[in-house]
Amino acid sequence: MFTHLQTFSGYSFQYGASQPGALVARAAELGMTRLGLTDRSGLYGAVRFAKACLKAGIAPVIGVDLAVVPDGWRPERRPTAARGGELRDPRLPRATVWATSRAGWGYLCELISDAHATRSDPMVTLGTIAQHCAGRDVVVGLGADSHAGRLLVQGRLDDATREVARWRDELGRGVVVAMTNHHTGGRGVASAHQAGGLLRVAGRLGLPAVATNMVRMAHREQAATVDVLDATRRLVPLDLRNIDRRNAEGYLKSEPQMRFAVEEAARLVGADADAVLAATEQLAERCALDPMADVGLGEIRLPEFEILGTTPEAAPRVLRERSIAGLNARYGVISPEVQDRLDDELAVIGKLGFESYFLTVGDVTDLIRGMGIRCAARGSGAGSLVNYALGISGVDPIRYGLIMERFLSPLRVALPDIDVDVESARRTEVYDRILETFGHQRVACVAMIETYRVRHAVRDVGAALSLPPVEVDAMAKAFPHIRARDARAALRDLPELRAAGLAEKRLEVLFDLVESLDGLPRHIALHPCGVILSDSALRQRTPVEGSFGGYPMSQFDKDDVEDLGLLKLDVLGIRMQSAMAHALGELERTTGSAPDIDALAPFDDEEVYDMIARRQTLGCFQIESPGQRELVGKFGPSSFEDIVIDISLFRPGPVKSDMITPFIDARQGFREPDYLHDDFRPVLEQTAGVVVFHEQIIQLVAVVTGCTLAQGDEVRRALGDREGQEQVKQWLFPRARERGYDEELIGRVWDILTSFASFGFCKAHAAAFALPTYQSAWLKRHHPAHFLAGVLTHDPGMYPKRLLLEEARRLGLAVLGLDVNVSTGEYRAEETPDGWGIRLSLADVKGIAADEIERIVEAQPFQSLTDFWERASVSQPTAEHLVLAGAFDSLYGIGEATGIRSSTQVTRRDLLLTLADLHTGTRKQVPAQAAFTFTEADALDVVPSGLPEMGDDERLKAELEILGLDASRHIMERYLPMLRAIRATSARTLLEAKNRSEILVAGVKVATQTPPVRSGRRVIFLTLDDSTGPVDATFFEDVQGPYSATVFNTWLLLVRGVVRRTGPRGVSIRATGAWDLGQVHDVWRAELERSGSPDDAVAAVRALVEEVPEGYSLVGEYVPPEKEGHAAIADDHTRAGGMGRRRVLVHASGFRQSPYADIKPQGTSAAEAPRKLWHSSPGSAGR
Amino acid sequence: MRTYHEPIAVLFDERPAQFIWRGRLLLVKEVQALSREASPWWRRAEQSETDLLREREVWRVEAGNGRLGRGVYELARTVGEEDWVLQAVAD
């Protein structure tokens, strides 16, 4: 029997190489009955560990390993090393603190919180430890890495003894000495010699000595990973000086191996090895915790009733009264139906004892609204009438057929999830208010543990191996956002990675290590929305540290928090809510009043649905993606219920199982809805016979078997895996037969249940989403300038801002340029003689600082550039950017560049000259003779020098570089002459293209998506904007080999494809090639300039496009969907070829999916890169 | 201690049990010390298929046989391989 008391998991952050679960599994294999976890600086992995122990039947021993500041210690000041270097790790001595009981867990939490309280590097002193631990249910261990251990390494046995004695004097019997023998030879840390020394110290002081192995990995084979973690943690390359381990002994050893290590050390000093091993077991027994009773798994801990202004006895009554008051306000009269539903829900809440939960959440939403912040519930909570009554959710569950059981079930004693969406820009205000109201002792934010995925793993391993940073960066960016352990599978699967040379043999060690980092925690961050609301004992249940932004943050993540039964409220910052708030604010500012968009029920504005059906949904919540625009076009939602269905349909599940086509067919009357049986009609009618919602599954089960809705939800959950499906089948069939349904019908129902159970969508959640969807669409329809100003300011969507501006132009709104005298830090609606316009914001000027914006707005209006320079005091680059982006144009009457100009007209170039003088302080006194050209005396600062104005091209380039926007004109205009010459098709004329004809289209990349499709193949959807509208092209596997890299990494694209007509208004393009538009344009221009013949220029482009990519071939099982020939089919397979061996994920429902579907593709996202739009070619002819 | 560098054959079962040196069989009576040291694998990382875990280990054992009496020997090898070397003797 041996217990490993000192074990570091991956939750020590770049220190341990194994997951807690892997350590537990290995200990179980070795027949151990107890296992310790002592992560560095926190309990980050403790809940997972306790859970794994509970499952494996192992008793957890939980502690923490803390850095201890010795008396008189000063941080070493060294010159800054590369990337922060060793300064990152002061290598302080350490101590281990174990809890021996539930109370001990509480002291441990408080000690850890204290260690994190003041510094960014968590550390304690003996004094802090004594203050929290002396005489309490904790044990402190001093081991090989302690200050005493280090004194022993220096041969100072007496000093080491005195040091341990100092701890004993403070902590009494709560101190043990821990020896570790890693067989390192010599006299260093964890050598047999040092271990022997620790045994002597313990013997001299009469303290118990235990043995540990300072485990950093479950298996010896992970040693190289441990080295990479050491180097990464210290931000230095791998080198003997930078890694802690000398050999691979720090793994979970067996009992005989540990006995051997202890005996070697004991023999050196004549100590008794058996006594050490026995003491180890004694300590393990003392520290073994009960995962339920001590750690607190499976408890429920809600705020006390007192904080909610009530008592345990009065709470049910208070909740009922508040609910009834709310319902009176909502409905006016409470009908018997509503009354019954309320009684049912309150009974369930009462049975579960969750009154406090609902009152708490109700208080929080009241708090948020009281601050004037927009707030909407999301999630299954919208199915509860009590939530509607308390104002937590804004959708009437009775009117829209939402059921409570999906949210809260008497059969499940688990806290339900209520998510609250608030304005993203004001989220922290909400946090502050919650903290203030409920008190710091009850509130903490939830942590989010970021783990290694492939890109970070490649970066860190590459840096550790001292590979050139440029190469590492390119490698990391080449990968899509997949798990690190799939790195090599991706190298096999994705042609663009092989083409980049990443499958080379020399990189094998790199990818071995990359995969070994998979899923290891690398960083802790504030969860974007989770807030824990608990009782005043919260700080004895979780350690709390300061987040980057200064909020108290639990060391537990959302799963841990749930396992510990702490009330977690997700307060999500939603940019769309901020965008709508901004729109309403702008309406208030410009028209004096804002409409109440929370009172739009019953959501029946036909103009809104008409706009949606015309697919003009850019900027609208939930329905703006390319796929959604296609869906709303086909579907044509005409009621709030339709929006709920639309949102539910456009999910991976329904798309995967192809529920959309049958639904659209039935809905458009192409086929009769099939309800299977009249009994199911009430359930299925709403969706034309197609199962879309979780709620329908629940109700179907209830109808077929006669069970309750709560049981129905249990069945729905069980259907998620194959095992559960079998159990449900055994239960469901006999019951359905009893109720008189025939075998065939039951079989068909069963098929529906198994195929849709895991794919349906929660209707209540969709309904909650449908509310902001409708609100945003309504605002866009009736107040487009104000709405788009909000969207542009808070940027909630998936599209680059330039596309939103394009949308504004299409809607007939003026795009008003940057103007130092009018623009602010936000996009604003502005009334012009020709109607509403949108004024660009200063915030998008490259490099402008928030305080610069503030000073500019404060000092407006300005009389001149000089005036601006003096009063706004912005940096020189910012001022220059403002000039180049045209912010002074209206001040100086600078207009369009024309051939004929007055020589007295000031140009942007003149402004730049003046600015340079102002900057260097050499501005001469303005000559008086210039005065006659100006009416404003103060504008006598800039002298027209006769320099020509910037050309259209230059202006556009400046706009793109500085604002990331093509504000004055569409960037594609530049390419129009060529596109006309080569007869490219525009989005507007695409509908006229013949089926199966080959066409060329071009545009700015708006989005690339790799959605799940039924065949299990990766398909790339590319959306381009060519200024007349969006164009969608699809790249199937056969063309991905030679062209996917271009699609992912280029912003302006020329695409060749074959037209497929899908309906009267439906056209899709099956792409057969893609090129960088800028390069094609260079070829065209060069040929045009060389030969002067337009025909030759077109021929040059044609030749480029018709070139067969080298080594392009089809591999695998691909069968062309249509008969027409392909541009190129060669037989030899090279590294640039098509898809390699294909892996397919198979779901429980039998659905097949590509492992690269639905993940963020490689390259930078479309929204991030607009500044790169300007194509600069390296040394092409004619430039 | 005298140092050597002589390849030898060792019977190993979790620890050295016996070995033959200069034609004589020596039985291991007791293991006095073990040390292991990893090699800086990253210097070889570019050559693929290297064993990243390669370690040298040194066993200091007390060994002997009936005729010769006891001595202390240091036996070294690469962990997991049979490239044993006698590197020191104290008798």
UniProtKB/TrEMBL annotation, chain A:
A biological process from GO: DNA replication
Reactions catalysed according to its record: DNA(n) + a 2'-deoxyribonucleoside 5'-triphosphate = DNA(n+1) + diphosphate
Example GO molecular function: nucleic acid binding
InterPro entries the UniProt entry points to: DNA_pol3_alpha_NTPase_dom, DNA_pol3_alpha_thumb_dom, DNA_pol3_finger, DnaE2/DnaE/PolC, DNAPol_HHH, NA-bd_OB_tRNA, PHP_dom, Pol/His_phosphatase_N
Keywords tagged on the record: Cytoplasm, DNA damage, DNA repair, DNA replication, DNA-directed DNA polymerase, Nucleotidyltransferase, Transferase
PANTHER family given in the database record: DNA POLYMERASE III SUBUNIT ALPHA, ERROR-PRONE DNA POLYMERASE
Domain annotation Polymerase/histidinol phosphatase N-terminal: ranges: 3-70
Organism superkingdom: Bacteria
Protein name, per record: DNA polymerase III subunit alpha
Annotated GO CC locations: cytoplasm
Residue ranges, annotated region (Disordered): 1155-1183
SUPFAM superfamilies: PHP domain-like (SSF89550)
EC number assigned by the record: 2.7.7.7
Family affiliation: Belongs to the DNA polymerase type-C family. DnaE subfamily. Belongs to the DNA polymerase type-C family. DnaE2 subfamily.
Pfam families: DNA_pol3_alpha, DNA_pol3_finger, HHH_6, PHP, tRNA_anti-codon
The keyword Metal-binding is assigned to this record: no
Subcellular location: Cytoplasm
Primary localisation category: cytoplasm
UniProtKB/TrEMBL annotation, chain B:
All copies of domain DUF6504, residue ranges: 6-90
InterPro entries to which the protein is assigned, alphabetical: DUF6504 (IPR045443)
Organism of this sequence: Tessaracoccus oleiagri
Domain of life: Bacteria
Pfam families assigned to the protein according to its UniProt record, in alphabetical order: DUF6504
Name of the molecule in the record: DUF6504 domain-containing protein
